[in-house]
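User: Second chain of the day. Same drill as before.
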Amino acid sequence: MAENLMLKFVNIPRLMPEKRDATDRAHDFGEIYSDFAEAKAEEQASRCSQCGVPYCQTHCPLHNNIPDWLRLTAEGRLREAYEISQATNTFPEICGRICPQDRLCEGNCVIEQSGHETVTIGSVEKYITDTAWAKGWVQPIKPAAERGQSVGIIGAGPGGLAAADMLRRAGVQVTVYDRYDRAGGLLTYGIPGFKLEKDVVIQRIQQLQDGGIEIVANCTVGVDISFEDIRAKHDAVVIATGVYKSRDLVGPGAGADGIVKAIDYLTASNRHGFGDHVPEFADGGLNADGKKVVVIGGGDTAMDCVRTAIRQGATSVKCLYRRDKANMPGSLRETQNAEEEGVEFVWLTAPKGFLDTPVSGVMVQKMRLGLPDVTGRQSPEVIEGADYVEPADLVIKALGFEPEDLPKLWEADGLEVTRWGTIRTDFETGKTSLPGVYAVGDIVRGASLVVWAIRDGRDCAAAILAELDGARAIAAE
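Assistant: Same format as last time:
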C-alpha cells in the first residue's frame, strides 16, 4: 500500500493549475487522500497487539469489539470491520470523532501503557464508518415485521435517538419530541462543527427518519403538549432531555452585559454555521470576533468555547480554571489542541467579580491546592492579597450543567428525582417511578459523555422491548 501511495504522488499530471479545472484538481486530492487515509488506517490497526485482555474494549462504555475490527481493518476487510463496529454502537461515525479516547479505549491500550504510543482507535473507527457511508454499506432501517405498539421519546439527542433506532428496528412505532428546530441535541447545537461536522449528524438523522421514526420538532413538553398526553398516546415513554440548565456565577457585576452562558454561545455559533440568521451573533453579543475573551471553566464545554473563540477571530483567549492542569476534568487532548491553537490557560484562578457593563474585566483571585476533598481531589483555596484584573470584552461561563425541574415543569408529581435533581431510575433498565416511563442519558447521570448516553439508550430500548413483548404475550392469552 505504501508503494502504491508513493506512485500516486509521483504520477500526478504535471499540468499548470490554470490548465486544469477545479474538478480535476479535486479528483486528484480526493484520490490521494483516500489512499493515504486507508494506508494510515491499516498501519494503525496493524499495531494492535490483539492482547488477551482487551482493556480498550472493557473501558469502552459500549464494550465495542475493538480488537476484531482493528484486525479486519489491518487486513483490508473494511466492510466486515464496519459490520462489527456498528453492531454495538448506534453512531460509530460520531463516537470516532468526539469520544475522549484518551480517557477511554486509547488511554487503556496495552501499547500505550508500555510507552509506545496508543493505537489511534478513534481515527480508525471514523475512517471505516465514513467509508461505509461513502460506499453505501450503511443499510436503511427495515423492520422484519411491524408492531402495533408505540413509544414516545422526549429529546432528540444521542440517548433518545439511540433508543429510537433500536426500537424502530424491532418494528415499534417511534415518535421523538424535541424542543429545537433540528434534531440531534448537543450533537447539533452544543458541539462545534470543527469537532463534529454537521453533515455527519444530518445524514444519520435522515436515515432514522427514512426508517420510519417520526421527529416532532419545535415541541416543548409542558407547553406545546403535556407530559400526560404523551403518556396516553404511547405504550411507553423515554425521557432523554439531557441537562441544559447552566450553573451560574456569583459576585459583583455577575449580571453584566457581555457575560454569557456557554450553551448560548455555542448554539449561536452552530446556528450561524447552518446559515441561520442569529441576531445575537450578528450584533456581536455572542460573537468573539475582535474581542478579548475569557472562558471560565475546565471541562470539555470550556474547551469547545475557547477553540470556537479562536476561530471567530478573538484577539486573545484565556481560560481560567481554579485547579491545575493535572486536575482538569476535561480531555487532555482537547486542552493540548487548545494550547496549540493559541489559547492561554491561567491555572489556579477563579473569578471574584466583574468590572463595568458591558464587561471590561474579570476580577481574578489566585488559588492554591489544599487538602483533598471527599472525592480525593485537592480543594482550591484562595491566596489572600493576590487578586488582579484580567481584561475582557466577552466572558463565557462554562461551569457545567444541571437538570431542569422536570416534575414541576411537566406537572409530573410522581416522577421521582435524586437530591441532585436527576431522574431516579433503575440502573440497568432506565425504569422510573412512573409505570411505563423510562429515562436515559444526562438527565439520569448528570452531564456526561455522548457514548454513555448511547449506551443508556440501547439498554433502555432492550428493556422496553422485553416489557412490550411481555404485554403482548399476556394480551394473546
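The longest helix spans residues 450-476.

User: Great, on to the next one.
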